[in-house]
Amino acid sequence: MLFDTDVLIFVQRGNLKAANMVNDATQRFISIQTYMELLQGAQNKKQHRIIQQFLKDFSFTILPLTENIGHRAAVYVEEYALSDAMRAGDAIIAATASEHVLPLATANIKHFRPIQELDINILKP
Question: What CATH number does the domain containing 31 carry?
Fold first, then answer.
């Protein structure tokens, strides 16, 4: 399963539903976009280390931005930016899930709803 940034933020804040969703996953993936968003939200180096240790402890695999993911993300932005306010970061996360044929865990269904090929697992915190 590919986890959206919001799910991991809920885990960091102590949300049990989010923690159970992560814990129950047999394989855990995040896109490089999510990794960067998590680090960007940290306030200092100590928080960077905590994030990195969390990802290591739960055996998350960080999936890189590939040419195919970049192309698919651009298509999503072209198709959905005007009609559904698709943002570049969400497009990269969605494209990563699509390219790797992974279900996407998110609490922000509205960010991903227009993309029909996504298998979305909704977190209701």
Answer: 3.40.50.1010
